[in-house]
């Protein structure tokens, strides 16, 4: 683990700042685990038993198909996880008021799925037919989500005292980046449901 490799410096930083390392609280773990499980089920249910025509359907030339939304979700699982567990944890320790960041948690989960605000995906997260089949992509998604769940359940790092900026939601700590990961899949699952609700969506 990267944090453990730099443990001497980490401890010196804590001593200099007068802070003590604190792992996630039980209610934080429980909330994140529940959210991750729920959004995994929502996503997998939304793409179950769809035909190739349904997966490829686009409501417009500038819209993503269900297959493209699913690929974007799966690509994002790995990138956001790595940001949360690696890049964010390398930032300097900051002192944060628990009352403040827990309020931010609630607002973040709500705001992520607000699809009235459109966001352009970065190039590395744009669909490019990376996987040969939906089955292969689904296997990858499940593996990555299970890894995230395992991290949330077992990590002992101080995930609330390290922050890194997000282009839309500003400074997020490592725990909030995990909530972002979960909320991001929910946001694009809602996009998949919008595609399926289109009057021209193939019946089979």
Task: Give a verbal description of the structure.
The chain is mostly helical. It has one domain (61-204). It is 60% helix and 4% strand. It contains 8 helices and 2 strands; from the N terminus they run αααααααββα. Strands 1-2 form a two-stranded antiparallel sheet. Helix 3 (26-46) packs parallel to helix 8 (174-196), helix 5 packs parallel to helix 7 (134-154) and helix 6 runs parallel beside helix 8. It starts with a helix and ends in an 8-residue tail after the last helix.
Note the topology:
Elements lengths: L1 H4 L1 H11 L8 H21 L5 H5 L9 H22 L10 H15 L21 H21 L8 E4 L3 E4 H23 L8
Antiparallel strand pairs: 1-2
Helix pairs in contact: 3-7, 3-8, 5-7, 5-8, 6-8
Keywords:
204 residues, mainly alpha, two-stranded antiparallel ribbon, 2 strands
Short description:
The chain contains 8 helices and 2 strands, in the order αααααααββα. It has 204 residues and is mostly helical.
Mean pLDDT rating = 88
Helix percentage range: 55-70%
Q: Radius of gyration over alpha carbons?
A: 18 Å
Strand order of the largest sheet: 1-2
User: What structural class do helix, strand and pairing data support?
Assistant: mainly alpha
Overall 3D form: elongated
Query: Could you name the ranges where pLDDT drops below 50 across 5 or more consecutive residues?
Result: 1-20
Residue share in β-strands: under 5%
């Amino acid at each position: 683990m990267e944090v453990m490799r730099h443990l001497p410096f980490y401890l010196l930083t804590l001593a200099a700042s007068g802070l003590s390392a604190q792992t996630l609280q039980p209610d934080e773990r429980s909330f994140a685990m529940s959210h991750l499980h729920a959004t995994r089920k929502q996503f997998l249910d939304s793409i179950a038993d769809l035909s190739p025509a349904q997966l490829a359907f686009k409501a417009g030339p500038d819209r993503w198909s269900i297959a493209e939304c699913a690929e974007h979700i799966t690509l994002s699982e790995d990138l956001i996880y790595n940001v949360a567990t690696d890049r964010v944890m390398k930032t300097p320790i900051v002192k944060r008021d628990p009352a403040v960041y827990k309020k931010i948690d609630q607002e973040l989960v709500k705001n992520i799925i607000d699809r009235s605000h459109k966001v352009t995906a970065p190039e590395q997260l744009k669909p490019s037919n990376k996987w040969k089949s939906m089955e292969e992509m689904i296997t990858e998604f499940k593996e990555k989500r299970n890894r995230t769940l395992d991290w949330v359940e077992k990590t002992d790092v101080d995930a609330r005292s390290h922050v890194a900026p997000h282009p839309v939601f500003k400074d997020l700590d490592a725990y909030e980046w995990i909530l972002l990961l979960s909320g991001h899949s929910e946001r694009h699952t809602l996009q998949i449901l919008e595609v399926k609700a289109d009057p021209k969506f193939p019946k089979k």
